[in-house]
């Protein structure tokens, strides 16, 4: 496996970053997780635009243009002969001294990893997953926007830890007002009648690329697609609940905090949206 690291392709075991990199010292950087389906990168442009916007927001200069990064991602895929997999693109502040000031880091560190995706076991798509809500809150948008996909994922990691301690795989984070924001690394949707509802970005939800695709599909198939605030109660009484994300795609939630959703099985709407999403990832590649 070859990793792109600062302008070179190096074998996996040689792909090393300095302990003085501010990405390591302070979580100072941004990243993207991207899928490759049958050799096509799903919505690469959207991922790169989000990466550049995240970087701009934290005054991090990426030493490549969007076009150059597009080519580098393609080259990383080619070099690893990957047709279906996952790409992790990381840009950290770079190597500096122990101070916080990014001025000591003259160049950003850029890493592109392309590898096989460790998918959720297929049975989870058949059975759905139970989840909980946890105490960890989404960071406030006025402090650090949830749109910045930064290397500071402590809240998200705590959500994951709390979920696992409770014996489930995923959990929902609320925002400071107590409205539902999102999962540790996934967006959340409710189906209620003909409504397909997901929290607005102002609630603390990342504008996920899978989320966008599901909203498009939902509109196309006549759902009343809404970005609306909702509470845990709304989740408990929804007809269907599912999570979306680059790695998870669309995964049904069958229990939330012990409340069974619908009849406790992945619902017909969720299954249909997953099916349409899987068609879209192929069609997008053919364009
Ligand atoms: N929310 C968070 C916090 C994430 O890290 C991710 C993953 O990127 C998502 C949601 C889902 O976004 P996407 O569909 O772009 O992968």
Automatic annotation (TrEMBL):
Domain of life, per lineage: Bacteria
Family classification: Belongs to the class-IV pyridoxal-phosphate-dependent aminotransferase family.
InterPro entries cross-referenced by the UniProt entry: Aminotrans_IV, Aminotrans_IV_CS, Aminotransferase-like, B_amino_transI, BCAT-like_C, BCAT-like_N, Class-IV_PLP-Dep_Aminotrnsfr
Record organism: Ectobacillus funiculus
Reactions accelerated catalytically: L-valine + 2-oxoglutarate = 3-methyl-2-oxobutanoate + L-glutamate; L-leucine + 2-oxoglutarate = 4-methyl-2-oxopentanoate + L-glutamate; L-isoleucine + 2-oxoglutarate = (S)-3-methyl-2-oxopentanoate + L-glutamate
CDD domains for this protein: D-AAT_like (cd01558)
EC number: 2.6.1.42
Cofactor(s) required, per the database record: pyridoxal 5'-phosphate
PANTHER family: AMINO-ACID AMINOTRANSFERASE, AMINODEOXYCHORISMATE LYASE
A family per Pfam: Aminotran_4
Keywords (A to Z) from UniProt: Amino-acid biosynthesis, Aminotransferase, Branched-chain amino acid biosynthesis, Pyridoxal phosphate, Transferase
Presence of keyword Protein biosynthesis: no
Function: Acts on leucine, isoleucine and valine.
Pathway(s) where this gene product acts: Amino-acid biosynthesis; L-isoleucine biosynthesis; L-isoleucine from 2-oxobutanoate: step 4/4; Amino-acid biosynthesis; L-valine biosynthesis; L-valine from pyruvate: step 4/4; Amino-acid biosynthesis; L-leucine biosynthesis; L-leucine from 3-methyl-2-oxobutanoate: step 4/4
Name listed for the protein in its UniProt record: Branched-chain-amino-acid aminotransferase
UniProt-recorded Gene Ontology molecular function terms: branched-chain-amino-acid transaminase activity
């Amino acid at each position: 496996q070859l990793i792109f690291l600062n302008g070179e392709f190096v074998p996996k075991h040689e792909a090393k970053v300095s302990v003085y990199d501010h990405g390591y010292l302070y979580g100072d950087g941004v990243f993207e997780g991207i899928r490759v389906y049958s050799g096509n990168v799903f919505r690469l442009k959207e991922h790169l635009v989000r990466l550049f916007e995240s970087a701009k927001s934290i005054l991090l200069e990426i030493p490549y243009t969007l076009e150059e990064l597009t080519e580098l991602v393609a080259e990383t895929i080619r070099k690893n002969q990957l047709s279906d997999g996952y790409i992790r693109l990381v840009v950290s502040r770079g190597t500096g001294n122990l101070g916080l000031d990014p001025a000591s880091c003259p160049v950003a560190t850029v890493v592109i990893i392309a590898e096989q995706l460790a998918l959720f076991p297929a049975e989870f798509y058949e059975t759905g997953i139970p989840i909980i809500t946890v105490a960890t809150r989404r960071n406030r948008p006025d402090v650090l926007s949830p749109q910045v996909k930064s290397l500071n994922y402590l809240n998200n990691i705590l959500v994951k830890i709390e979920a696992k301690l409770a014996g489930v795989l995923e959990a929902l984070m609320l925002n400071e007002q107590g409205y539902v924001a999102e999962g540790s690394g996934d967006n959340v949707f409710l189906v209620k009648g003909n409504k397909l509802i997901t929290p607005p970005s102002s609630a603390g939800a990342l504008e996920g690329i899978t989320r966008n695709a599901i909203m498009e599909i939902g509109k196309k198939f006549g759902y009343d697609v809404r970005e609306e605030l909702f509470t845990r109660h709304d989740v408990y009484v929804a007809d269907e609940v599912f999570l979306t994300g680059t790695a998870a795609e669309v995964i049904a939630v069958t229990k939330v905090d012990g409340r069974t959703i619908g009849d406790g099985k992945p619902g017909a709407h969720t299954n249909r949206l997953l099916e349409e999403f899987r068609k879209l990832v192929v069609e997008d590649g053919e364009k």
